[in-house]
Amino acid sequence: MRYFITFAYRGTDYHGSQTQPNGITVQAVLEEAMATILREPVPLTFAGRTDAGVHAAYMVAHFDTVKPVPVNLAARLNNLLPDSIAIRGIRPVRDDAHARFDATARTYQYRITTAKDPFLYQTHTRVAAGLDFEAMNRAAQYLLGQQDFASFCRIHTDVKTTICHVCEARWVQESETTACFTITADRFLRNMVRAVVGTLFEIGRGHMTPEQMAEVIAAHSRSRAGHSAPAEGLSLVDIKYPNKIYLS
Predict the structure, then answer these.
(1) In the chain, how many domains are there?
(2) Which positions are annotated as active-site residues?
(3) Domain check: are 6 and 83 in the same one?
(4) Cβ neighbours of 31 (radius 10 Å)
């Protein structure tokens, strides 16, 4: 049987979401906990990859088991897992459902603060005051639609295409000292959101005009975009799937 497991994590403690040989990852910790409870190896296939220090309020993975999982598996996992990982739910899905390939949309948010706040430093990136959010939102409109986002993709990746369809990209000032950038697309490239945010920072600081965002996109060159924004402000917050893949 195949299941989707939904969970959240604070990425500060991890070298990314997916297993790698040189550091502790969310996948490794979660698979170990599941194997302990189910008494068998339980490989997870994540909906996507997040880099070291990046968070997820909503991540999905699928896994297979020979027999149905206990109804209290989510609660048992939460008792075993560290505070930095929380299970939200487990649902049976069709045997051909895929956490990555069946996703129809993903949403990321990038949060910033202009204040030194000990309660925000792990989830918000601290920036200097004075960003021009109106200019940044004008620039963000150039991101909308289906186009080639090679300028915001980490080089030397093995993706077959750098075409993505962005349907939402906007900044909202949440308070006098905090703001949030939300971006939704059918897919994202490695480092894409952080590169986009870094470029918007350049525009917000007056180093580029909003109209130059179109030139950056058209260049299809990572060197034309801004530096990648720091990891701590970025969170994956939603993933959409068609209802037909769920069995209950």
Answers:
(1) 2
(2) 51
(3) yes
(4) 18
